Structure formats: C-alpha cells, structure tokens
Amino acid sequence: MGEIITVDDPADPRLHDYTDLTDVELRRRREPAEGLFIAEGEKVIRRAGDAGYGMRSMLLSQKWVDVMRDVIDRSDSPVYVMEPALAEQVTGYHVHRGALASMGRRPLPDPAGVLRTARRVVVLESVNDHTNIGAIFRSAAALGMDAVLLSPDCADPLYRRSVKVSMGAVFSVPYARLETWPKDLTTVQDLGFTVLALTPDERAHTLDETAPHRMDRVALMLGAEGTGLSPRALSAADTWVRIPMSHGVDSLNVGAAAAVAFYAVTAGRPQE
C-alpha cells in the first residue's frame, strides 16, 4: 500500500512531477526526458494502471483518497494529499477532477512490430494539436482501428491533454513513431498495406467508391488541421480518398473526419 503523505508546501521537491502542468513547451521536453506522463481523473488513472503503466506517485485532494482507496492499496507509490488551492499553485490550474497520477512511460514499440498483426491502421502526419490527437485515438479505439503510426513531428499521445480528451484510449490502441518521413511509409506498404491519403481534393475517390472495408490491409493517412497532408505524403500514398461534402462545406475538423473515415474503413469487418 502506498504511503499517504499530507503536503502543505507547494515548493516541496517531492511534487516535482506535477509542477507547471500548463507550460506546454516545458512539459513536452520534460516528460519524455524524465520518463513520465500525467494521468488526470479517476477513470484515466485506472485505465492507465489497467494498461500496465507503473505509477510513480499520486496527487489527490482529501475527498479523493477514499474514492481511490483500492488503487492506493494496490500500489507502493507515495500518495501526496493537498488542499486544492495549494495543488493549483503546484500545477498552475485548478484540478477539477481532484486526482492526478504520475505514471512511468514505456519504450515505444517498433512500427513493424505494431503492424505485424494489424489490418486497419491510421497514419498521422504533423498532427501537433493535443486535443486532435486525443480525439483521433478515442475514435480509433471506438471504431476498431488496430494501431496508430505517428510522423516524427506529431504531438505526444501521452501528454496530459491528449490522454484526457481520449478518455484513456491512448492506452488501448498500440502506436509507434516513424523515424524518417515519409520514407518510412514504404515499411507500411512492404507489409501489404494499401496507403489511403484522406484529402478534400476533388481528384480523390470517395470512400464509398474505394470501399476500404473490402481491402485486406489498409493504412488511412491524415494530415494536420488546416494544412492537411503534405505534397510528399500525398505522393507516397497509393490512393487518394475523400469524404463527400454538401452545402458548400469543403472539409471537416481532422478529428471528425477521422471518425467518419474510420467507420468507412472498418464497417463490415469480421469480428476476431
């Protein structure tokens, strides 16, 4: 059982993992370098533990100690208890859900290993908004995508905002990061995947025409909000696909587009 420690000094060095959580650039550098990520809220903390991530510590307000008692009892990690106003001085914001946990990262798997047993994967290019990353992972989990591949400059799926928006789905969908972009798409294609580039370009085939749910192995590639896929990524794809639009709308938010396209890719797929 983890030791429960009441802390009344926001500068206590034991709270280092939780300092300045709103400083995005600082946390982007610190968290991977220090091998940690932050899980926020009861459900997300539980899902991170269930997925096998080791807990470093927890930061709770008093009323959450009883709620998280079973998690505390199963862990040897320290549990720091603070008044909400003091915790806000540490983190930089009001922790509405009252519970934070610092979790240990695991090494990312090799892309080829992630793809070996997959049939439906999503490939993301330069999606650097954490909210969009979280939304895409949540849709990928809900709609049966097998894995996510990230270009080198994509945002971190384990950043607090991504984890929160995904409701912990980042823990249930395997993912890996491609090192050389877009050259490493050849690894995907060599494993038998047809790479479909999602674009609003009118030259693209509609998803209905392409019928990706009938293909053996599909890698659906999406680009960043606004700019979409780069010319290099489009050139590397096997086929361009699009979602038909009405009423003069030219495109959807990347999170919404991902959900629509995931359904088209997975609809009618046999359950394994």
Automatic annotation (TrEMBL):
The uppermost taxa in this organism's lineage are: Bacteria, Bacillati, Actinomycetota, Actinomycetes, Kitasatosporales
Show where the tRNA/rRNA methyltransferase SpoU type domain sits: 121-263
Superkingdom field: Bacteria
Q: Where are the transmembrane segments?
A: none
Keyword Transmembrane attached? no
Q: Which InterPro entries match?
A: Alpha/beta_knot_MTases (IPR029028), Ribosomal_eL30-like_sf (IPR029064), rRNA_Methyltransferase (IPR051259), SpoU_MeTrfase (IPR001537), tRNA_m1G_MTases_N (IPR029026)
Which UniProt keyword terms apply here?
Answer: Methyltransferase, Transferase
Query: Molecular function terms in GO for this entry?
Result: methyltransferase activity
Provide the protein name: RNA methyltransferase
Coiled coil regions, renumbered to chain: none
Pfam families given in the database record: SpoU_methylase (PF00588)
Give GO terms for biological process: methylation
CDD domains, per database record? SpoU-like_rRNA-MTase (cd18095)
- Keyword RNA-binding among UniProt keywords: no
